[in-house]
Design brief:
178 residues
Amino acid sequence: MTLTRAGGLAALMCAGTYLFGFALLVTLLAPLGFGTDQIDVQAVMAFNHQRPGLLTVWNTTIYIVNALALALLVVSLSARLRTFDPGWASVTHAIGLIWATLVLGAGMIANVAIEKVSALYPTDPEGAAVLWSVMHSVESGLGGGNEIAGAVWICCVIPKGLASDSLGISEVPSSPAL
């Protein structure tokens, strides 16, 4: 398998993790306040206690699987850009791997938080809620609550990719004449 093909598969995997994540978010997690600044921490704790493992699967998919696929995508795209502008390809490579690292770290913290609060919740629900709130803030700061590093990476990749046609998207198909 070529690096280009592996990068394409990684891009599809990243898209799949987003689809899975959003599907779970809008169907089960939005009523708890996920995705807003009005998250109901006590409800999250009760949800996690009633459905052990579901948040771990969600975090693993949207963060850890996504980050590993993203790392492969970053390497693949920077290799394609390298033929056009080696220096800029190195910049996109570095920023993309920083983004993947932040996403991976956010996922690891999110899963450790769920593990710790799951153990604490039966004996100290309020303590579990406080611990989860703190850990969730760290997770959000690393990348779960913002996508600054990802936005910077996209802003670095797209202009050079379009200029060089190294992404294969320089020409937008036009509509047939009527």
